[in-house]
Write a structure and sequence with these properties.
By secondary structure, the protein is α/β, with parallel strands linked by helices. It has eleven helices and 13 strands. Strand 4, helix 5 and strand 5 form a beta-alpha-beta unit. It starts with a strand and ends with a strand.
């Protein structure tokens, strides 16, 4: 069967920019007097490697407590606008019209929309009435890699068809004033908003092809990362130290995934990783036996945009693609489950 080719790739962020130093100051004002241990956690902001991030609402909006209805309204407004922007950029890059798209895969875990986002924006973008829609929820940070895998398989199943995959997350809307927990402080220090879109097609050219994909789900790890849901909205769950987990468990899992692809780590010219934060990047370089500083694009993306959940690894892929992909790379991301998702890319110069 024909493998799917990466026809185009685009990224977008919302218009409001937040400097990390300003977020730290605001966090002190919001949490400092109410959280006795806050001073022990404030150093987290300096250790993320983040300089700035983006949000769908102005900075001042986040300084007031917000409930589920307000968060949902902000999600629908912001996500729809960002979806249209990033999808149109991917279409322009591919030289396609929206009516050329046969399948749309939408990956999002930071808001709930029924009808789904793809249906809400269909008329504005110009999708055909018979477009196949595949909304995917719950993959978290792994969604960029898993979404690319899903989209490639759908393209491969219908050679010549065009599959649009959009990964869009508005993580900033999960900011909680009422949760005086370390997990919430980590979320405040890390997360930003962003979107990425890719168009894939099988059967007729394309220098970069989706060679293989695979996942690994660790047992009894559901408490590592995810959402709790209550009347205020989503609340972040982050109960174990992810860098330590990466150092101890990722390499054997990747070796198994690559083995099913009939590959080994030595066959990979470049690892393209979801950068959860500066410490996660260090852990990735350690466990993958990479020279310190190898994951420079990952560091640049986290510094400029923060952790945007699912689109983040596609921001890294975009930078790597612009600077020149090697013959074989492995896109990898970790997410709730706890799951490792991988996509092998084969590039012909």
């Amino acid at each position: 069967m024909h493998t799917a080719a990466l026809v185009s790739l685009a990224t977008s962020v919302p218009p409001h920019t937040f400097l990390q130093k300003d977020v730290l100051t605001a966090a002190w004002d919001v949490f400092g007097s109410r959280f006795p241990d806050y001073d022990r956690f404030a150093g987290i902001f300096a250790n993320t490697g983040i300089v700035k991030r983006h949000g769908v609402k102005p900075f001042e909006w986040y300084l007031e407590p917000r409930g589920w209805p307000e968060r949902t309204a902000a999600f629908l407004e912001g996500a729809e606008a960002l979806y249209v922007e990033v999808a149109n950029k991917a279409l322009a890059d591919a030289g396609l019209a929206a009516s050329d798209i046969d399948t749309v895969v939408t990956v999002c875990s930071t808001g709930i929309a029924t009808p789904s986002l793809d249906a809400r924006v269909a008329r504005r973008i110009g999708f055909r009435s018979d477009v196949m829609r595949v909304p995917v929820f719950g993959l978290g940070c792994a969604g960029g890699a898993s979404g690319l895998s899903i989209a490639s398989r759908l393209a491969q199943a219908r050679p010549g068809s065009n599959v649009l995959m959009v990964a869009i997350e508005l993580c900033s809307l999960a900011l909680r004033h009422d949760e005086l927990t370390k997990a919430n402080i980590i979320a405040v220090s890390l997360f930003g908003d962003g979107a990425a879109a890719a168009i894939l097609r099988a059967g007729d050219g394309g220098a970069t092809r989706i060679e293989h994909s695979g996942e690994h789900l660790w047992p009894d790890t559901q408490g590592i990362m995810g959402w709790s849901v209550d009347p205020q909205g989503f609340g972040v769950i982050m109960r174990r130290t992810i860098p330590e987990f990466v150092t101890q468990h990722l390499k054997p899992a990747l070796t198994q995934i690559l083995g099913r692809m009939q590959l080994t780590p030595d066959d990979i010219d470049r690892f393209i990783c979801h950068p959860g934060g500066a410490k996660v990047i260090q852990a990735l370089e350690t466990t993958l036996a990479l020279d310190q500083g190898t994951l420079e694009h990952e560091r640049d993306v986290i510094a400029e945009f923060g952790n945007m959940s699912s689109p983040t690894v596609l921001f890294v892929l975009e930078r790597t693609r612009v600077r020149g992909l090697p013959a074989r790379s492995l896109l990898t991301a970790l997410g709730p489950g706890f799951t490792a998702s991988c996509v092998s890319l084969r590039h012909a110069a």
